[in-house]
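User: Fold this, then the next.

Assistant: Folding the first:
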Amino acid sequence: MTTAVEWIKFIAGAIFLLAGLAIFMLEIIGVFRFKYVLNRMHAAAMGDTFGIGCSLIGLILMNGFNFTSLKLFLVIVFLWFSSPVSSHLIARLEVATDEEPDRHYKKASKLVSKNALLSSPSETEFHKE
């Protein structure tokens, strides 16, 4: 009975590890295929967060539930909090120091004209009840 449980844990852990590796491969493809730095960074940040999570969950399942698993879980929690925050700060720095912003993104003032706002006042007014 215990050998069947261990095989199930091993297979589930291997599936999570392989999923993590596949996510890392997709991340690498995204980093090299995208042209703009924010698109590259988004692919890298999402891949790191999800890929590391899947890989470490696979290691937790293969290792069993003990003190080492708790440490791996704490690494997952730390990376899930730190990776998005650092990516967001780097993205804000890129937007603030971009030398050619018109080439990379359109500003809201260019997308919405004054005539469009004046022609539909019902969308911008508050409805009182």
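Now the next one, as you asked:
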Amino acid sequence: MAKPTLDNSHPIMRSIQFIERAGLILITLATIIAIGQELRAIFIQGRVELSDILLLFIYLEILTMVALYFTSGKLPVRYPIYISIVTITRYIMLGMKELDANDIIYLTIAILLLTLSSVVLRYGHAKLPYQDDDDQTD
């Protein structure tokens, strides 16, 4: 029995696509505002710290993810993994004095697992490509 599908001209699909695009636009605007706020804070502080740079990288990864989704309609799993790695790294850097050794070990293991998952995804995509490589993204 064939699964029922809705084509892109169906009102439900058009509504979902509209909500999806509106959400992406809101994410983009919020990210641009956050970048401006961070740059303002850097300017007021009078110096750039590594945590500031990492935060800006997180914002750029979010914008890259949104742009990729707008252009291709696909969202690779790797981008949220990269964002998570940078976010955990920034968290460790900012809270180094308050974190106990176990917390740092757990966070480091999380980074390692995320990195390994990214490597597995890349390897799997290279060695076991999807049947229709244009329709899928890792």
